[in-house]
Amino acid sequence: MKLTDTQLEILRKAASHPERLCIRAARLSGGARERVTKALINQGLATAMPRGDRLGYELWHFDGEDFLLRITDAGLRAVGAEPEAERAEAAEAPVAEAVANAPRAGRAFWRAAEEAAARGEIPPAPDLSAPTHAPYRRKLEKLLDLARAGDAAGLRAVAINATSTTPKALARWRDLAVRAIETRGA
Questions:
Q1: Would you call 164 helix, strand, or coil by DSSP?
Q2: pTM of whole model > 0.90?
Q3: Edge-to-edge strands of the sheet including 65-71?
Q4: pLDDT value for 37
């Protein structure tokens, strides 16, 4: 298959990205960006994946949805990269990485988050990638920054009006992050 220079540039950057995420070419915007996204997905060179807690990463847009774009093994082969090497590195990733890729909702998620907090690990954040959660993403980013900094007092100071499911999830996650920070400090 013949790839455009833009497609090659995006796939080459993704092949060297630690999470194999596609980064937009500087000259790509608007409708051209959506056409390239559609072509990469339709050719099986990249796949759409939910954003999850990967805040700050570039979002792609196609068919009315925002998502992260990740290079596939076929995309790696198209630019001469070896998919097996990527798999070997992923197999050696620490347990925390496996927890970070766990589901972001439901009882199993919260059970795993509570166990992580009990061990002194900041739990993975809940998935706020659905459009209904958009108003709360900025608050989640703030909570994540405070948790990464180990600021338990700062986390406690963030006001969350837990009147619906999303703010209740944010409050629950914040409390688990505080517990993890305090467990580490003990």
A1: coil
A2: no
A3: 46-49, 65-71, 60-62
A4: 83
